[in-house]
Design a protein that fits this description.
By secondary structure, this protein is an alpha/beta fold. Helix content is 18%, strand content 37%. Strand 3 and strand 4 form a beta hairpin.
């Protein structure tokens, strides 16, 4: 799996993508003006995440399948990013939390899920899923925090089901060109 941005991303979005890829251990692919066909060639059969923008800031995550189809997306408004340049060692995060969003993330991300985070060893890398917040944590500190606005599944089983707020106008990352 890899992380990339919508076309012609802002500096904030590129920084967000790099931090997200470092946390998830997915590779980062610089997008620039690359179109969908070229992106699929780069994917080489991998699923990928596209970070979309809203007014020059990261605002959505699109989970794409092996053939480029959009499977799942989530929208967020506040992306709080730890600004230090601390190195994150390569280890897969663990997802913790309950509810529809946690279930969806577990189905699209190759991470283990633990329902009770109190049993995790100190210093674990954890994606804490809440109804309103996604908190990407390394030990006791938050590396990245997203204030959620909504999410939607696009696969056959969930076609047409939507949770959360109505999407706003703007660039969402669901469009490629």
């Amino acid at each position: 799996m890899f992380v990339t941005s919508s076309r012609k991303p802002s500096a904030k979005t590129r920084t967000f993508c790099k931090k997200l890829s470092q946390f998830t251990t997915f590779r980062y692919v610089s997008r620039g003006k690359t179109g969908l066909r070229e992106l699929l060639d780069l994917a080489e059969g991998e699923a990928f995440l596209v970070v979309g923008e809203y007014h020059g800031n990261p605002g959505s995550l699109g989970f794409h399948g092996f053939e480029g189809q959009l499977l799942f997306s989530l929208r967020f408004s506040d992306a709080s990013l730890r600004q230090d340049s601390a190195y994150l060692p390569r280890k897969l995060p663990i997802i913790t939390g309950s509810g529809e969003l946690a279930e969806a993330l577990v189905s699209y991300l190759p991470f283990e899920r633990v329902k009770d985070s109190s049993s995790l060893p100190k210093g674990s890398r954890v994606l804490v899923v809440d109804e309103e917040i996604l908190d990407f944590r390394e030990g006791e500190s938050s590396v990245l925090k997203l204030k959620l606005k909504g999410f939607k599944g696009y696969d056959e089983a969930e076609k047409g089901s939507e949770s959360g707020a109505e999407p706003e106008e703007g660039k969402t990352g669901d469009e490629f060109e």
